Amino acid sequence: MARMFSKIFKKTPKSYEEQRAALDSADVKARLTLARDSQTSKEILYYLAEQDPVAAVRKAVADNEAMPVQVSPILAGDTDEDVRMALARRLVALLPDVSQDKQSQLYAFAVQALGTLALDEVLKIRVALSSTLKDHAHTPPKVAGQLARDVEREVSEPILRFCSALSDEDLLEILKTHPASWVIEAVAERERLSEDVSEAVIETHDPPGGAALIKNDGAALSESLLHKIIDMARNMPEWQKPMAVRKGLPSSMARELAAFVDASVRDLLLRRKDFDDAEVEEIAAVFRRRVDFADEGPLEGMEDKLKRLIKEGGLTEESISDALAMRECDFVIGALAHLSGNAPEPVAKVFEAKAAKAIVALVWRAGLSMRLALALQKEMGQIAPKSLLYPKGGTDFPLSEEDMRWQLEFMGLKAS
Asked: What is the rounded distance in angstroms from the CA atom of residue 33 to the CA atom of residue 196?
């Protein structure tokens, strides 16, 4: 036995014979002394951890700063929970040293043992691990992933909220398979979030989680995701104020918000210090036009309102944009039909078909701007971001006139 352990640990300390004598003794106190002594041979500590029948002796080995890491997978399966708890503390303390070489056997032994403890049947052991590893610089990603999936909130939430070792892959999978509101909110409040994880949070359609994400300056939000959030915020009032004060919000998106939020949110937009006077006036103008649109002829239907605006010469791009902001889709279709010289039915089919090129061609035929064509693709056409047609050079239509006429004819619309 001694020769076998000598081969594993390569070294036998002084007084080895005395240590062997104590090991072979029936005296528990003698074995406890051995287990507690940092000068005890590692092979003897290993033997005590693996074979000693007294839990206090095995716990003393786990508490010993000289505990051989090789024995940690054995101690992780010990029948005594105090031994396993002591091992958890010891391994966390050892992580900075063993993590210096993540390809080493010692690191593999430590991660294996921590993985076993992360699945321990005793809740307090998993809670202790979670509370110490949540902000530990050397937390193994595999162990973080195990703890983050724990069914007990007091185990998983600290890891979900704070642990930087948790991978995006883990976060995406957890959001997909365990979309409890507190899980989503914990992820949303992490110090840093990638665009992919931010989008996954929004895709859960969880009001508190989405609000937490929008408030989080460390969450990366792509332009397309910002548009999606603003669109969803129409039906999620909890998101409107956080969006109104979010750092770096483009003024164009502030105008989108102003098209449907109430006066309190509008005031937040107008008080932003990162918009110039012209941008602030645009936001205020959008809100005023929207109110005017809603107040004009409150008892008249969309068809009557359309007829009245046509008669008064008030059917403009601004009035169509205001109707779009108010989700008055019938008005928008009727306006486009009138301006393009078509019947409403084939115009409606363009949007039902989700045909980006046909929408752009229809707006061109109506004598309106490419800016409105882009908004119509997003809002009424529900075109996927990767399929949107954007203005050429910032303002011009991206298709040739010949192509746009063909698109109109293909959809059964007048092209000239």
From this structure: 54
